[in-house]
Each structure stands twice: as C-alpha cells, then as structure tokens.
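Weekly puzzle thread! Below is a chain. First person to post its structure in token form gets bragging rights.
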Amino acid sequence: MKQNTIPSFLWSVIKPYKWWYLLMMQAPIIGSFYKVANSYAVKLVVDAFKGAAMPEYSDLAYPITL
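Winning reply:
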C-alpha cells in the first residue's frame, strides 16, 4: 500500500488508535485544571476551619470531593 503524503501516512497509522490519541491529547488539558481545583479546595478547607473551631462534616464535604 503506497502512501502519497505524510498526513495520509500518519492517518493510516493513527486511525486504529484514534480514540486513544484523543484521550492522550485531553490529559494535559484536564491536568492543567488540577492545580486550580486543588488550590480552591485548600482555600475552602482553610475557610471552614477559620469560621469555626470544629467545622461540620457538611462544610468539608465539597472540598473533599473536589
């Protein structure tokens, strides 16, 4: 099977694994939001402890799941 161009060759190689490549391209994007979400969760925990000496479990449920 002769490939005429570089993109057609690459597509023939990638095509069987296209969903894995899509997943691999999403990983850095999703990973970049982790730092923001982690910092926000720590802020919520600090705010919960700042407001009360012993915070309720409901105050900590959202930051823990985040």
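Puzzle host: Confirmed. Bonus trivia for everyone else. The chain has a mean pLDDT of 84.
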